[in-house]
């Protein structure tokens, strides 16, 4: 008889499996990238839901490694081959079974936040890694002025921008950050009731 996996167990399992994989041309694995983003959010004093969003923002890249995933999904390899894998939307939809919008919306919007920042902040594009520059082109490029205005007016825009900033800073191959197990209590604490 198989053991029942909690949502947090499933997430930890994804880090152990898919998290060890290459992160789309970056010098870190996907798991290391996510752990660094979570650590940056925690170090900034972000509330638990936003730390969880930073930690899980690229879970859409890991879902293919989850043996309990509902459907076969694209991996990051498709994104790097020029096909947008919509990992923010897919990851947020998967997480929404267990987590509230304060976690899932910044995950869903973190790609849009990159597009927004490239349009709204002079110099932000210059901070992007070469891989992020490439994926930006696949994901629609910088937003138009009207798109940027609409994005900025959204309820979770500021949180998505914060996640995006941690995302871009979370690519240090020398970073020493806590492992995913250190986030178990935080993740359990932000699970949606019922």
Helices, strands, pairings?
Elements: H1 7-16, H2 30-43, H3 48-56, H4 59-62, H5 76-80, H6 87-95, H7 101-120, H8 130-138, H9 145-152, H10 157-169, H11 184-190
Helix share of residues?
55-70%
- Stretches where pLDDT is under 50 for at least 5 consecutive residues are 72-76
What's the alpha carbon Rg, rounded to whole Å?
A: 16 Å
Mean pLDDT: 86
Termini separation: 25 Å
From N to C, what is the helix and strand string?
HHHHHHHHHHH
State the secondary-structure class: mainly alpha
**Overall 3D geometry?**
globular
| Strand count | 0
Strand content: under 5%
Biggest pleated sheet: none
| Total count of helical runs of at least 4 residues | 11
């Amino acid at each position: 008889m198989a053991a029942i996996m909690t949502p947090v167990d499933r997430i930890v399992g994804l880090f152990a499996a898919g998290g060890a994989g290459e992160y789309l041309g970056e010098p870190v694995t996907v798991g290391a990238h996510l752990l660094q983003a979570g650590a940056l959010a925690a170090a900034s004093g972000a509330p638990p839901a936003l730390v969880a969003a930073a930690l899980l923002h690229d879970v859409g890249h890991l879902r293919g490694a989850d043996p309990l995933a509902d459907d076969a999904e694209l991996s990051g390899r498709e994104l790097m081959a020029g096909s947008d894998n919509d990992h923010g939307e897919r990851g947020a939809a998967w997480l929404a079974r267990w987590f509230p919008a304060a976690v899932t919306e910044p995950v869903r919007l973190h790609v849009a936040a990159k597009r927004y920042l490239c349009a709204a902040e002079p110099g932000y594009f210059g901070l992007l890694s070469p891989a992020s520059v490439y994926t930006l082109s696949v994901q629609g490029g910088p937003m138009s002025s009207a798109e940027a205005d609409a994005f900025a007016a959204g309820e979770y825009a500021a949180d998505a921008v914060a996640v995006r900033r941690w995302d871009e800073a979370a690519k240090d191959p020398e970073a020493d950050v806590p492992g995913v197990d250190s986030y178990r209590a935080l993740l359990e604490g932000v699970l949606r009731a019922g």
